Amino acid sequence: LFFPSRPCCIEALLAEAAEPGTPARPCPCPLPSGDTALSRLVRRLLSARRSLDLCLFSFSCPQLARAVQLLHRRGVRVRLVTDSQYMGLHGSQIGRLRHAGIQVRHDQHSGYMHHKFAIVDRRMLITGSLNWTTQAIQSNRENVLVVEDAEYVKAFLDEFERIWEEYNPTNYSFF
Amino acid sequence: LFFPSRPCCIEALLAEAAEPGTPARPCPCPLPSGDTALSRLVRRLLSARRSLDLCLFSFSCPQLARAVQLLHRRGVRVRLVTDSQYMGLHGSQIGRLRHAGIQVRHDQHSGYMHHKFAIVDRRMLITGSLNWTTQAIQSNRENVLVVEDAEYVKAFLDEFERIWEEYNPTNYSFF
């Protein structure tokens, strides 16, 4: 998938994911709801049935946060690793996701946790240059690869588990 | 490939690429020359024989710039697309590469040219979260995928050609 993506409405996608089979009420917003790089990304995420592992430097896009929250509500096990310096920036969605009960861990280093990948159901890797921000989605030249090759998925899953354990709050130091 | 990478000396790799077969003189620097994520990345780049297409948001790592310059001197056709706001930052290697005669093009937008990929000989795609900066290589959590699957390579080659043409200086506006 290549970005920038035209702005688009993803209400129909979210409604269908929340209550499959129920016809979605038309959204009153003026945005088109066509097929865009963003809608394709959201569709991939919403295909999660069991787990969603997120490793994201910067996460401020409200539309993607709603998709993640919906999966969490639907019983998908969501884990999120992020960067300690970027998670507190204005517009960050991390607080909202934590508030919703999603497990979040972050680094304690001066170096950045600069990954931008997601793993759906331990079988689909979504990775690239794209930070999950509206600016990146709508204004930047970006790429996102969707890979189901087991070799790549396993390498990124292993990296996720390493980071998840390394950033376990029981390891935090306060001195 | 996952980063951060231990700091390492790539002089032996560069010397071998510059004059294949000639035994490299030992480098007096104190860095180890072992197998690291950085040395693997450099090895992939130095495998180029005909072309190297670079699409890089930020490029300030002198070691990677030396590898690119060496390929250019060896007759490999190097093309580089970068971001107009980041190419002038302190430590950027873009000026040096232009000075060496390498073709560079950049955007004219407020949105970022945020890709970080390289295509070797139109057959190997190197892409991920890694900006080509020493900070990212040595301090950040980063990933780089090396993909030879024709479908992915073609998609990124097409994106490169689109951007290369869009950023042609004959299209620049000065008003």
List the helices and strands and how they pair.
The structure is a homodimer of 175-residue chains.
Chain A: E1 2-3, H1 11-18, H2 37-46, E2 51-56, H3 62-73, E3 77-82, H4 94-99, E4 103-106, E5 116-120, E6 124-128, H5 134-139, E7 142-147, H6 150-166
Parallel strand pairs in A: 2-3, 3-4
Antiparallel strand pairs in A: 1-7, 2-5, 5-6, 6-7
Categorize the overall geometry of chain A.
Answer: globular
Q: How do the helices and strands follow one another from N- to C-terminus of chain A?
A: EHHEHEHEEEHEH
Counting structural domains of chain A, the number is 1
**Top CATH class of chain A:** Alpha Beta
**Approximately how much helix is present in the residues of chain A?**
25-40%
Give the N-terminus to C-terminus distance of chain A in angstroms: 43 Å
Q: What amount of the residues of chain A lies in strands?
A: 15-25%
- CATH superfamily (homologous) name of chain A: Endonuclease Chain A
Main beta-sheet annotation of chain A: 7 strands, mixed
Give the helix/strand class of chain A. alpha/beta
Count of helix runs of chain A: 6
CATH topology of chain A: Endonuclease, Chain A
**Quaternary state of the chains:** homodimer
> How are the strands of the largest sheet of chain A arranged?
1-7-6-5-2-3-4
The averaged pLDDT of chain A comes out at 94
